[in-house]
Specification:
Distance between the termini: 23 Å
Low-confidence stretches: none
Helix content: 25-40%
Order of helices and strands: HEEEEEEEEH
Mean pLDDT: 82
């Protein structure tokens, strides 16, 4: 989210820096063990760009899974009632999304990571959501 502070991202980033400093023995290690989490890896992602200019009404959020052909947003013409559908080009998970309600033709709207096994990726994302909730509840 451009021009915004994301508290969750800041806490995760600070925790990552602290973990690196502990690994390099620049800070003392913590006594509690953290659970090992497996990363989700994809080698394909793509930005979905606006085919038209107008107001955007998004239907999907960060972390949502999408299937090819799903409507993920609408773009409305400024001066009439025309609306355009923004479709997911492949199965994946939304990893980036514009927060600006206006789009010009060619603007990046959604960043989607492709996954062959969408169900497995969705289960892993649920695990990360639980981890994010835990981080937000903890003090660093």
């Amino acid at each position: 989210e451009a021009l915004r502070f994301d508290e969750k991202a800041i806490k995760i980033g600070v925790r990552g820096v602290l973990n690196v400093l502990r690994t390099l023995k620049m800070l003392p290690t913590l006594s509690k063990k953290s659970s090992k989490r497996q990363s989700i890896v994809t080698k394909k992602s793509s930005w979905i760009r606006a085919a038209e200019s107008g107001f955007i009404r998004t239907l999907k959020e960060l972390g949502d899974t999408v299937e090819q052909g799903d409507v993920i947003a609408y773009i409305y013409e400024v001066f009439d009632d025309t609306q355009y559908r923004v479709l997911a080009p492949f199965d994946g998970i939304i990893i980036g999304k514009t927060q600006i309600p206006l789009a010009h033709e060619g603007d990046a709207l959604f960043h989607i990571a492709a996954f062959a096994d969408l169900e497995h990726a969705e289960k892993r994302m649920e695990h990360y959501q639980e981890f994010d909730d835990m981080i937000l509840s903890e003090n660093l």
